[in-house]
What does this fold into?
Amino acid sequence: MDRRRFVLLMAAGVLGAAVGRGTAELVEDPPSRSGRQLRPAAATPTQPPGTVPPPLGVVDRLPGEGSRLALTVDDGVSSDVVAAFTDLAADTGLRLTFFPNGCYRSWTDNAPALRPLVESGQVALGNHTWSHPDLRALDDAAVADEIETNRRFLADTFGAGETPFFRPPFGSHDGRVDRIAADCGHPTVAMWNGTLGDDRVLTPGELMASARRWFAAQSITIGHANHATVTTVFNELRALIDERALETVTLADVWAAPH
It folds into this structure.
């Protein structure tokens, strides 16, 4: 579909729902490929996928009321951390939204394990640019190239269909960047209202303090696949989600994506 027509269709609110439901609930704590014991997901989404058309412009929380948590994971500097997140999703049923930078080989390295999760809808993808620059410092052509290069990478590597979701590196964007992203097929600027703070190296205690602060109903929380600390607290993160009776969802579970 022509991308400009795609944007207009979403603005009219006529896009169909996409992203099927995925993993059945597990009954035992399974070992991951790395041998870690991981807690199975306590709940899977109950609402039909993507029943609300994705908005034009910025979102930083999930719409409406409920107990949903959108855990989003950016960048992908470390192949080992991307692999650990992939194992976490596969072994527990946790639903995640990844925002990869295609310049990192971690995504190609882990594509064979990650692609089935993308195809099932348990993992959704958004565009985070190819190489993570501050887009406000680039001219129009360079902004479009960063977004388009990464869009093609996601399609070629994961067979991903068009995604409405765009996350600007560093959260740095303005009206010009948003317009170019929409022209490239990504009209929804996916920001966040919670963070694990792990864009820098943290201790496990610091990371969990951030999770306890920000894991809340209807939150979009950002994490990163860059530093190993997060992989040491997966069980604690799952326990916190269970304790607060939160239901993990992808952004595409909530907002309709194109077929």
User: Anything to note?
Assistant: The chain is about 35% helix and 15% strand. Residues 1-48 have pLDDT under 50 and may be disordered.
